[in-house]
Amino acid sequence: MFAPITSGWHTRRMRTSRSAASPAPTRRARQRAATTEEIKALARHQLAEQGPGALSLRAIARQMGTASSALYRYFPSQSDLVTALCVEAYDSLAGAIIAARDAQPPGDHARRWTALSHAWRRWSLEHPADFALIFGTPLPGYQAPPEATAAAAGRSISAAAAVYAAAVQAGAADPARAQIPADLETGALWGTLAGDSGLAGQPQLAGIVISAWTSLLGYLIAEIFGSLTQIITTTGVLYQAHVRTVMLGMGYQPALIDPPATGQGG
């Protein structure tokens, strides 16, 4: 009985969408967008080759064969360029995590957490310069403006929080198994990060998610920046075990967690 209503709404929406569609970008707008992307691509190359401290608008201008003053029409300062790169890195990470989560069945709560955990590591190993930019040593004098980066930075942890909230609701994870006290106090930022996961007013669950998230981040920092690869050559296998350990600490039911892999490197 809802089909005619739905069909009519969809048709009207399509007509409205077409009539309200934005005009095609002008040639000047396309050129500006292309130049902006070129600047960011060269900046990423600098970060990958020389590290965050070597980022230079002058060097980018030389590579583009233009005056450095011309770049300030696109990015008023080096900090503005870094902020744009940070936002894109956060969005790229969130996209990888969300895609991995959504590739798993909605009812398989443990596998969804496992999937997003491994997606985080894959992204980090494939994008070491971006990882260094958002999780590594800050650029001298740079402070990320929260109004520009907070939304993008929070997308990944919001996705993780939603997965854990669903697991708790379904009985796949029991917060009572975790070692996190129930009387934690959360700040305003947690409410933003939790989004609509249902965890905003639950400090114990907030503590469990944050503890797990920082544990995974610590492993990745040790693997990418530290000497972990010189200590353990099969870091992929160790990470699988680490994810399981983290999940057990979060209160996931042991029977639902994939068994540890053996004989696999990476």
Concise synopsis of the structure shown:
Helix content is 67%, strand content 0%. With 266 residues, the chain is mainly alpha-helical. It has 12 helices and no strands.
Describe the overall structure.
- The chain has 266 residues and is mainly alpha-helical.
- It folds into two domains: 25-76, Orthogonal Bundle (Arc Repressor Mutant, subunit A), CATH 1.10.10.60; 89-256, Orthogonal Bundle (Tetracycline Repressor, domain 2), CATH 1.10.357.10.
- It is built from twelve helices and no strands.
- The protein is elongated, with a radius of gyration of 22 Å.
- The model is unreliable at 1-19 (pLDDT under 50).
Give the CA-CA distance, first to last residue.
Answer: 54 Å
Helix content, binned percent:
55-70%
In round numbers, the mean pLDDT is 85
Query: Sheet bearing the most strands, described?
Result: none
- The fourth-level CATH homologous superfamily of the largest domain is Tetracycline Repressor, domain 2
Shape assignment? elongated
Portion of residues in beta strands equals: under 5%
In total, the number of strands is 0
Low-confidence stretches: 1-19
Q: Strand pairing plus helix content: what structural class?
A: mainly alpha
Could you spell the SSE succession in H and E letters?
A: HHHHHHHHHHHH
CATH class of the largest domain: Mainly Alpha
**Rg, nearest Å:** 22 Å
Question: Which CATH architecture of the largest domain is right?
Answer: Orthogonal Bundle
CATH topology of the largest domain: Tetracycline Repressor, domain 2
What count of domains describes the coordinates? 2
How many H/I helical runs?
A: 12
